[in-house]
Write a structure and sequence with these properties.
- This protein is of the alpha+beta class and about 280 residues long.
- It folds into 2 domains: about 80 residues, Immunoglobulins (Immunoglobulin-like), CATH 2.60.40.10; about 150 residues, 3-Layer(aba) Sandwich (Pathogenesis-related Protein p14a).
- The chain is built from 6 helices and 18 strands.
- Strands 1, 2, 15, 16, 17 and 18 form a 6-stranded mixed sheet that branches. The protein has a 5-stranded mixed sheet with strand order 5-12-11-8-9. A 3-stranded antiparallel sheet has the order 3-4-7, with no helix packed on it.
- A hairpin with a 4-residue loop joins strand 11 and strand 12.
- Helix 1 runs parallel beside helix 5 and helix 2 packs across helix 4.
Length: about 280
Amino acid sequence: MSQLHVFWVGALSILLNGCGGSETTQTTPQVSDSNQITVDAGLDKRTVVNQSIELEGSVSNSQSTAVSYEWKEGEQTLATTRIFSYLPTESGVHLLSFTAQNSDGSRNTDNMIVIVTTQVIDTNIPKMSNALISSYLNEINKARSQEQDCGTKGIFSATTSVSWNEKLYKASYEHIQDLIASETFSHDGSGTESDWTGYLLGKQSNQVERVESYGYSWQRLGENLAGGTKMDSAKAAIQAWLESDNHCENLMNPLFKEVGMVMLEDENALYTHYWGQNFGTPK
């Protein structure tokens, strides 16, 4: 009988502006009803300590041509221009805000994240063959093309197909190789050297940090994990996820548009076959 470990409780689904703390600090551009000013801090960024990056905020639908700007990190003002060069001196996840104000005093603010590491990640993640990508997508979209009973999450109607995203694949690959190397099984990284994103940040990585470290800008994320000594096919992994309410919900969520998926095998590891699946809706 094969060992099977599906992380039943921990299937992740993260929505911008939903519950869940710091992972949801990305926002869509902010609109004020009073003057229809739209403020956008731009896409989240990644850089290394003492390497500057250019940040550019934007404002639209303003009824006034006289607009002032302010970039802040916490209570510290960084710049009073729309475009500026940000030079981080410490590693970590930095939350920056961009505020624009009209001449009549009305204002609005949008936030962005800059992930700062001590060095550039060089992981040499292998390129997956087109044939393998197609086989994974076929199994995923076959499940999505049929009505599925996700237990406590309800009945999900057949829904649209998802497409492959290389950045989501790379985030999945990083996490699965970390689970094997660290002999752990969690949605959080190990915080060791095999947790490439977390190690550079000096902490255990989470899904948001891993996905963003490969440049994926998102509105919604979900992650499924599975492992089993005889779970050597995508069909077997997806069937296991369909039999778990939370994982089934991720698989069938009609709001997800893209996916990256990987299986890594190690005969000396507890579960032998380890599967990771990242769903995303791009920003």
